[in-house]
Automatic annotation (TrEMBL):
Keywords per UniProt: Repeat, WD repeat
WDR36/Utp21 N-terminal domain: residues covered: 2-128
Domain WDR36/Utp21 C-terminal: 474-675
Gene Ontology CC: one annotated term: Pwp2p-containing subcomplex of 90S preribosome
WD repeats: 94-125, 265-306, 348-384
GO BP terms, alphabetized: rRNA processing
Keyword Repeat assigned: yes
Native source organism of the sequence: Brachypteracias leptosomus (short-legged ground-roller)
Listed Gene3D superfamilies: YVTN repeat-like/Quinoprotein amine dehydrogenase
InterPro entries listed in its UniProt record: WD40/YVTN_repeat-like_dom_sf (IPR015943), WD40_repeat_CS (IPR019775), WD40_repeat_dom_sf (IPR036322), WD40_rpt (IPR001680), WDR36-Utp21_N (IPR059157), WDR36/Utp21_C (IPR007319)
Keyword Nucleus: no
Protein name according to UniProt: WDR36 protein
Pfam families on file: Beta-prop_WDR36-Utp21_1st (PF25171), Beta-prop_WDR36-Utp21_2nd (PF25168), Utp21 (PF04192)
């Protein structure tokens, strides 16, 4: 009825939270002053009052497993547990979260408390020890500040390492959240950091900006090794912490720079924008803001080669398997450099903002880039063209491609999440044609910001996925010998059918069933067809129609027609659709003793001649002709017309084979020369 029943006078302070107590008509009220009031709303009476010194009450929850305990949250991440029977503070859980407690709830009938905070973490606490203090049973957490750099780790594509503005390094699993792990925050002295606590820690390292990982060592901890570069003129101090993660070793630094002392005096005149090491640990590649890329020997630290660029580079990325180096510039362009020839092989332009990150596909064919213009573009390196581009509502600050090529992971500005984009070319038909110069990319809404209303994007998807299907012609060129696309089982064993039938002959004759089933009458012939129902005639006759016993097959009829039309495609296509046994039956029936005629046999030989002249279905022509000669050799020797046609076929076969033999010999000679020259 939307009718006001009663108004409480209150306590002249702002109410921050309300929670129903297990007792009937009792409500816990949290105030901005830190007071907690247990009030009976039926009689408007205050039953008890508590006070916390940590600021406003952010959340309240009651245990329902037989213990009269109330938990209260604070804006600094502490949790207070109050004994309702003794009306006193039972214990404190300090730093339960690094930020304010946003919500908490006891599991009904269980000693479990679920809490969440603004630090992007959900924790489950269990109270099974003395004193009523809880400890963490399970935890799911992410970055409390947006991630700045993400990279896939390992070769199975199941782990993503992420460094955030909160200074932590975390490992996220793409399989299940239970495999997520936090490597914590780097510290110069872990013992001092633990004593001072999280918020008063002055030994903590600044947020990570760049890291690299290798799958070798098997531990899961923040290791003690730390490296510190010497302070010299115009050189900033570098700190490196070695983390060890799941049978993998990870090296992270807070700045991209050269870490070896011998490089510091003569490496680059300007700021160093990128460092890369090749897959064999033979070369170190560095990029400087003065527009130079330098190649150094890994062991001797000697300068090997230097390349002058047209603009100042902003970052580099090396695909270690192929030796391809991607270079992004301050003028928003991208170049691809081959480290073997040390030449720039591709240059791309099209971004209208600073390029944030780059990633290669596992096979090195694609280079995917993200920019502050909110676009993510995919460049095809072999063709040198842009093949995909889409807009996002927030610029991607980091990209990484799965080692298996199935997912692209991205981190975005002011966003705590890591987004996975599926590679549709693995499971659907996607056009990889170059995009036109005037292509306008569409905005792809991310999952967490998806609008409520349904958006019809069927038209866009149809346009993007539309691909011209290439239909291969039956013959690419008139001078090329073309084979058919039929499997070998359709023609390879035509000469050995008698051996196969003998081998497959059953040892015992088939047994006649006791009651034979009913069969619908069919028309005699190779293709089974049911007899059409005929009108019943009043008159019956006992004259047998002998024409029914001499049925001609469709192949036979088409060969007869081809004698006059000289068009043999119809009988050839019909023969290609038959199996080996049916092909043998059709060729046997061409002889006069099988119901055929010499004219039809001549038509068949002309069909083979047509196949040899046009040089397509070459292996079928050989197989069909071989079977025909095997079945009708005696008849061919006694008929002059057939002998003349066979001699013509013999000359055609010899010319074609001489041409093929010449091509084979040329290819073998070139191959032998290449093998001997390389050795």
């Amino acid at each position: 009825s939307s009718k006001l029943l009663y108004s409480f006078p209150g306590w002249h302070l702002a109410v921050t939270t309300l929670e129903q107590a297990p007792a009937v008509d009792v409500v816990a009220i949290g105030l901005v002053s830190g007071h907690i009031i247990l009030h009976n709303i039926k009689f408007d009476e205050t039953l008890m009052k508590f006070q916390q010194d940590w600021g406003p009450i952010t959340a309240i929850s009651f245990r329902t497993d037989g213990h009269p305990v109330m938990a209260a949250g604070s804006p600094i991440g502490h949790i207070a547990l109050w004994d309702l029977e003794e009306k006193k503070l039972m214990c404190q859980m300090q730093d339960a979260h690094s930020t304010a407690i946003a919500g908490m709830s006891f599991v009904p009938g269980e000693p479990l408390l679920i809490t969440n905070g603004a630090d992007n973490a959900i924790r489950v606490w269990i109270f099974d020890g003395p004193g009523g203090v809880g400890h963490v049973l399970r935890c799911r957490m992410g970055h409390s500040a947006p991630p700045t750099k993400i990279r896939y780790h390992g070769q199975n594509g199941e782990q993503i390492l992420s460094a955030g503005q909160d200074g932590t390094l975390q490992s996220f699993s793409t399989v299940h959240e239970k495999f997520n792990k936090s490597l914590g925050r780097g510290s110069i002295n872990k013992k001092k950091s633990k004593k001072k606590g999280l918020k008063l820690d002055t030994m903590a390292l600044p947020p990570i900006t760049v890291f690299a990982s290798v799958p070798q060592i098997s531990h899961s901890k923040n290791g003690p090794p730390k490296l510190k570069a010497e302070v010299k003129a115009n050189i900033q101090v570098q700190l490196i912490t070695i983390f060890v993660l799941y049978s993998r070793c990870l090296l992270e630094s807070n700045l991209v720079s050269i870490l070896i002392k011998k490089f510091q005096q003569s490496s680059h005149e300007g700021a160093i924008r990128g460092v890369a090491v090749d897959g064999l640990n033979q070369l170190i590649i560095t990029a400087g803001s003065e527009g130079l890329i330098k190649f150094w020997k890994f062991k001797t630290k000697d300068l090997v080669y230097s390349i002058e660029l047209s603009s100042s580079p902003s970052g580099i990325l090396l695909h270690r398997d192929s030796g391809i180096l991607g270079v992004s510039f301050d003028d928003f362009s991208i170049s691809v450099l081959d480290t073997e020839t040390r030449r720039i092989v591709r240059t791309f332009s099209g971004h209208h903002g600073r390029i944030n990150d780059m990633t290669f596909s596992p096979d090195g064919r694609w280079l995917i880039t993200s920019s502050m213009d909110c676009t993510i573009k995919t460049w095809d390196l072999p063709s040198g063209c842009l093949i995909d581009c889409f807009l996002v509502d927030s610029a991607a600050v980091s990209l990484t491609m799965s080692p298996t090529g199935d997912f692209l992971a991205s981190a975005h500005v002011d966003d705590l999440g890591i987004y996975l984009w599926s590679n549709r070319s693995l499971y659907s038909l996607v056009s990889l044609r170059p995009l036109p110069a005037d292509y306008e990319p569409s905005v792809v809404t991310r999952l967490s910001t998806c609008p409520v209303q349904d958006v019809d994007v069927a038209g866009d998807e149809e346009t993007c996925d539309k691909m011209i299907e290439y239909v291969s012609p039956e013959q690419l060129g008139e001078q090329l010998v073309t084979l058919s696309s039929l499997p070998e089982s359709r023609w390879k064993n035509l000469l050995n059918l008698d051996v196969i039938k003998k081998r497959n002959k059953p040892r015992e004759p088939p047994k006649v069933p006791k009651s034979a089933p009913f069969f619908i009458p069919t028309v005699p012939g190779l293709i089974p067809r049911y007899i059409a129902p005929e009108e019943e005639n009043d008159t019956q006759t006992k004259v047998v129609n002998l024409g029914v016993l001499a049925q001609k097959s469709d192949f036979y009829i088409q060969l007869e027609e081809a004698l006059f039309t000289n068009k043999y495609m119809a009988p050839l296509n019909l023969l290609k659709s038959l199996g080996p046994s049916n092909i043998e039956i059709e060729l046997r029936s061409l002889a006069p003793e099988g119901g055929g005629s010499v004219e039809v046999m001549l038509s068949f030989l002309r069909m083979i001649g047509m196949m040899l002249n046009k040089k397509y279905n070459f292996e079928l022509a050989q197989a069909y002709l071989a079977l025909f000669l095997k079945l009708h050799l005696k008849i061919l020797s006694s008929e002059p017309n057939l002998l003349e046609e066979v001699s013509k076929l013999s000359m055609q076969l010899e010319e074609t084979w001489i041409h093929l033999q010449t091509l084979f010999n040329q290819s073998l000679c070139v191959l032998t020369y290449m093998k001997s020259a390389l050795l």
